[in-house]
Design goal:
It is a single chain. With 98 residues, the protein is mainly β. Strands 6-7-1-4-5-8-9 form a seven-stranded antiparallel sheet, with no helix packed on it. Strand 8 and strand 9 form a beta hairpin.
């Protein structure tokens, strides 16, 4: 990867979602614009805030898709990342910073 680019593998979105009240929301339902999670696979030499293996939050509308060896990846700039979830090695919990 070059410069401030990140190569991420998007998490697969299930066909249906469930609300906190227990209602099933079908995949065809149009709702507000949602951000998506992905795992960083590779990073450029000028990326400072994100490491390989981190989960990142990004806008799926502003992305460039690439197919490598039959797998779908997304190419992002570091500035397009909205948040990073890091795993705390001490207790295994996940912390989120924006």
């Amino acid at each position: 990867m070059l410069h401030d680019r990140l190569l991420v593998e998007p998490e697969t979105d299930s066909a249906e979602r469930q609300s906190t009240a227990g209602l099933v929301i079908p995949a065809t339902a149009v709702g507000p614009k949602r951000l998506a999670w992905a795992t960083v696979v590779a990073k450029g030499e000028h990326v400072r805030q994100v490491d390989v293996g981190d989960r990142v939050l990004y806008d799926p509308e502003e992305r460039a898709e690439v197919d490598l060896a039959g797998r779908d990846y997304v190419l992002l700039r570091e500035r397009d990342v909205h948040g990073v979830a890091e795993r705390d090695e001490a207790d295994g919990s996940t912390g989120l910073y924006l």
